[in-house]
Amino acid sequence: MKYISTRGGVEPLSFQQVVLMGLADDGGLLIPESIPDARDRLQSWRKLDYLQLAQEVFSLFATDIPTDVMRSLIERSYRGTFHPEVAPTVRVGDLFILELFHGPTLSFKDVALQFLGNLYEHILGQTGGHLNILGATSGDTGSAAIYGVRGRAGINIFVMHPHKRVSEIQERQMTSVLDANVHNIAVRGSFDDCQRIMKSLASDLDFKRRHSIGSVNSINFARILAQIVYYFYSAFHVQRITGTTQTRVCVPTGNFGDILAGWYAGRMGLNLSQMILATNENDILARFFNTGVYSRGTVAQTYSPAMDIQVSSNFERYLYHRVGSDPKRLRLLMEGFASTGSLKLDLREGEVVDSQMVSKSATNAETLETIAKYYRDYGYVLDPHTAVGVHVAEDFGLEGDPLVCVSTAHPAKFPEAIREATGESVARHPDIDALAGLPTRCEILDNDSGAVRAFIEKTLSA
Fold it and tell me: Which CATH architecture has domain 89-106+222-431?
């Protein structure tokens, strides 16, 4: 399997080269030359446990990693670190919840970033090289990435988060990790500002090569690959217990990475009859799938901060396929968006953006109402991001094919929202409680790529 850039300016790469490059050197995103067709394998895949299924899926994309090495990477990433099933699916009322919060930082990001940390260590061990990871987080990516690479030889990590715009618990999960290779940066701005700085520095090829800059954000295709697995695993589980052959899935998303992984699973052959994209009040993606217009707005702060995003970093991968895999057309659209803040598909009368993908948004009030309802009716506590998904799923109706809602974080990470919704302090977890009183370390910087660049260079020279 070889990989190309959405913007057409990079020679085909191997999977391991893609992992180290992160953002493509031409400013695009790296994608497989073709999406593997796994339809003739699905019957055998249904019988596998999570780790065995991961081995099968990864082997189609990471063809330059020997089978025994990949098996070891998967074992170290998931065995004993997660729930025995890694990503269990449970029935709650008339729908199913895919619980992705059973990793070390209680976030769906752990599923990919525990694997990526081990993958980086393997690649660097072969080459004797080193890597300086630059990441941006709206809340959960940062802590999951930090826990994935803390203390690892040959790796430094610099994580930017928007100052005072992540939850206190999310901030403490990151800044209480004091390993010498971990560097937290609070940027005086929004997550979109952090993401812009990250892409600006990663696009500076001299800086990127001189300092061996890599990425843990979902612009790194290895992140998307790891997330594909749980869509197969959950759908097989639901189809087995309901006796159905098709499944619907609802995904709360801001950066489009999680739902993109599900979209890839569908293109590989997984029988998903409908994909529901749920957003909070930062509804750039919902507006796109309903109108064909992708237009940046002002970032609103909500109870689901990981989705407080107006520029979705993985959207370019989907758009590439949507415009016929034409890098020239894609490049023109993205350059227009960069200069005007908007792009538009040329849709014929009556044409929809995607016949399989539908989308709506949820307000803050609707998010709290959904948390309260599911706690009252089922004794189940939804985190605010999952509640956004459940509310939108209910809006589209729960009749028909079984519906799986992706749950992206443990509710204990958002105790204030849960308390406001339920009137009770029911969102607890011992790992979260243990954070109280721990010493922290973080650098607060201006919203400026030059300031971040100077901090990285100063830190590395020391």
Answer: 3-Layer(aba) Sandwich (3.40)
